[in-house]
Every structure is written in structure tokens, then in C-alpha cells.
């Protein structure tokens, strides 16, 4: 049994430490590792999601500084994850509702057989060198994220594939022969993991000079001063903060709990916005029956809040 670690008060600014992590490794015992890892996180008050697969680990979690430090030490004590890297940011409120450790076929789902970043991968580029690369006229810059993420932020001049899921990315590459028109391909994503597979896929399909942003957008926003930045907008994150900005400060976006799209303060003024029920992104694609179900859920959330509880669907 692990010792329960003292938790900070959630109302304290920046009280919660958020750790984003991934590591590709041959991890044949991933199934037996799941339950002990779930227990470890639960006992230490850690919340978030960790994905385990034969190809490694991926996820984002939050907790007290002591709890996250203990988790990272625990993971790095496993021979497969001895060199695991992570990125840290802060949240003023616990950004997750529960802790989930899941078993998956892939730790990031591309759906292409035999893509192994341990065998072939693009060239890593540190944030300090990224501006020079993407400003080179001989470089095509590609955002490997999905459309709801690119909608709120993107690197200046980047190509947006407008994919709904990462599974669509390989077909997008195959259907865009113009990607061969320039010698260099520079790719980026939120924390770096999608680019591991995306650059491996590109190199497997004949692209030679393929680069990716080490540590992803999160590391860039942490390291590169705003006045030198070529990033435009905010970076979507997969927790209740919704977005972060330079210095990894919490952004101003909110989340539509009907469709999970990030929404701006301006979009909240739309006649199609109803908290927890609809927004301008999903109003036309949901039925009135759907919206009534969402209204009932929102009423239950409000009642739970009034009682001082946190509704599981909030």
C-alpha cells in the first residue's frame, strides 16, 4: 500500500500539478500493470487518464506536487519507462473528475500496422530552433491535430489537415501529393506523441527530411517568450482547463459539454449556446430530444453543486 499524500486546497491558485507524459517501449506486461497502477493513483489522490499498451504508456494526470512526483518515480522505476519524459503545468482547480487507467491496442491511435517510432522517426527540433525551421521557405509545416484543436490555435503558416480524428491523417497524406513539393516537412502536435507516429509514417512513405517539435506545443509555449513566438491563439488541452497560452497559463476558453468543442467568450453570446446543452458548433447536428437529455444532465449537475457534491457527468 502506498502512503496517502497530503493534497493542496483546490481553491489555491495553481495548487494542482498537471503532468503530461508518454513513452514508447516494448511493454508486454501492460495488462498486469493496469490494476496496481490504478490503485497507486487512487491512493495518492491522482486523477486523469493513463493509457497502457504493448507499445508503451501515454496520458495526462493531476495531483499534488508530492503525489505526481511519487507517480513519476514509480513509473521510472519500471525498466521499460526508465527514460520517461514529462511536461508540467499548473491548474487552479482539479482538471479531472476521476482516475482511469485503460488498456489499449495503441497509446495513440493511428490505425496503421507496423508503425514503430522506436525503429524510425523524424528529427527532433528543440523549441528554441523551431522558429527558424518553420520560417524557411523550403519547409512545409503540418499540424497533426484535429479540427477542434486547430480551431483555437495554430502556428503561423501551418497547413491544417482538418481531420476529425488522428486515424484520418494517413489518408490525408496519401491524398496530398503536393506535400512532396518542398524538401522539408515540419510537424507538430500538443505534447509530441502524435508526431512520433506521424513522422514515422511520413518517413515510411518516402519523405526524407522530416522534423517534429520536441515536447510539442506545450514545451514551445513554456520555453519561447511570447514576443518571439510564431504561435497564434491558444492550445487545446484534454482536461477541464480547455486551453493554455504562453507560459502555460490557463486560457479563457470553455468547453461545450454537449459536443466537447472549445468555445470562446464571443461564441457564448450565440443564441445557439446553452450551458451544457448546445453551442454554435453542434446546434444543427443535435436533435431536440438530445438537447432535452443534456438539459436534464445539466439540472442534475446544478443540484449536485448546490449540495456541495461534484456530479460525475460534469
Automatic annotation (TrEMBL):
SUPFAM superfamilies: Rhodanese/Cell cycle control phosphatase. GO terms for biological process: tRNA modification. It is an enzyme of class 1 (oxidoreductase). The keyword Ligase does not apply. Pfam families: Rhodanese, UPF0176_N. InterPro entries: Rhodanese-like_dom, Rhodanese-like_dom_sf, TrhO, TRHO_N. Residues 135-229 form the Rhodanese domain. GO terms for molecular function: oxidoreductase activity, acting on paired donors, with incorporation or reduction of molecular oxygen; transferase activity. It catalyses: uridine(34) in tRNA + AH2 + O2 = 5-hydroxyuridine(34) in tRNA + A + H2O. Its EC number is 1.14.-.-. Keywords: Oxidoreductase, Transferase, tRNA processing. Belongs to the TrhO family. NCBIfam families: PRK00142.1-4. Catalyzes oxygen-dependent 5-hydroxyuridine (ho5U) modification at position 34 in tRNAs. This is tRNA uridine(34) hydroxylase. The gene is trhO.
